[in-house]
Each structure stands twice: as structure tokens, then as C-alpha cells.
Design brief:
The protein is an alpha/beta fold. Helix content is 24%, strand content 32%. It has two domains: 6-52, Roll (2,3-Dihydroxybiphenyl 1,2-Dioxygenase, domain 1); 73-125, 2,3-Dihydroxybiphenyl 1,2-Dioxygenase, domain 1, CATH 3.10.180. The protein is built from three helices and eight strands. The strands form two sheets. It has a four-stranded mixed sheet with strand order 1-4-3-2. Strands 5-8-7-6 form a four-stranded mixed sheet, covered by helices on one side. The relative contact order is 0.18. Residues 3-126 form the VOC domain. This is Glyoxalase.
Length: 130
């Protein structure tokens, strides 16, 4: 079965985004893959990367010009308390809260945020409600 090795986010400021996610979740940076246009973190069995705009040319891609969410990241945590604590921490680090922590109709507990670049993300607990 194929495995997802990285999910990458394009950003004009890879240092700011790397600092935000690294500080928020305590992810360890994969220093071996650090370049002037890329930062990466080990993120629980996969990697989270940040690409500077120069990576578009390297990859043969063209930046999308139309607005709107196309993808968002979901980060699982160990408890509802951790969802609440990380949501508060994200706000302190410059995130915008879209939805405060809530229980979904399928029983998970999560918050929805936007990182400092405006990318959507969720902080999620999918265990038994407390």
C-alpha cells in the first residue's frame, strides 16, 4: 500500500510557518532536508513540509490564482484537553480560530483554525468523549 510521506504547504515565509507548526506541535525538524526553499518536520509517521515560492519552478508547477480552500491538515492529539490547550496555543502563536473546540456529529472533538498564512487546519481527538 502506498504511504503518504509528506504533505507540503507553499508559503512566502517558510521560516514563519516552520516556527508556527514546530512550536505549536513540538515537531522535530528534519534538518537533513533543510534548504533555502524547504523546511520539513517529522509529524507522527509522515512529514510536514513548507515550500518557498521558488519551489514552484523547481517542481514545474504554477501557483493557483483563484482563492479558496483546497486542502487542510488534521492533527490528531491524545485528549479533549489537548485539543483545547493547543487551540489556545495556536491562537497565541498567530492562528485564527474558525470554530472553537466542539464535538462533531460523528463523535470526534476538534477545533478548526487558520494558520498565520490563512491555511485551514484541525486539531482533533477521535477517542471516547470525556
Amino acid at each position: 500500500m502506498p504511504a503518504l510521506t509528506y504533505t507540503n504547504i507553499f508559503t512566502a515565509d517558510i521560516d514563519r510557518m516552520a516556527e508556527f507548526y514546530g512550536e505549536l506541535f513540538g515537531f522535530e525538524e528534519n534538518l537533513v532536508s533543510r534548504t533555502p526553499i524547504f523546511r520539513a518536520f517529522f509529524a507522527g509517521g509522515t512529514g510536514l513540509g513548507f515550500n518557498a515560492p521558488d519551489a514552484y519552478d523547481l517542481l514545474g508547477l504554477t501557483p493557483q490564482e483563484t482563492p479558496g480552500d483546497r486542502v487542510f491538515q488534521t492533527f490528531d492529539v491524545e485528549s479533549q484537553d489537548e485539543v483545547r490547550a493547543l487551540t489556545d496555543k495556536a491562537r497565541d502563536l498567530g492562528a485564527t480560530i474558525v470554530k472553537e473546540p466542539f464535538t462533531t456529529y460523528y463523535g470526534w472533538y476538534q477545533s478548526v483554525l487558520r494558520d498565520p498564512d490563512g491555511n485551514a487546519l484541525r486539531i482533533n481527538f477521535r477517542g471516547t468523549p470525556e
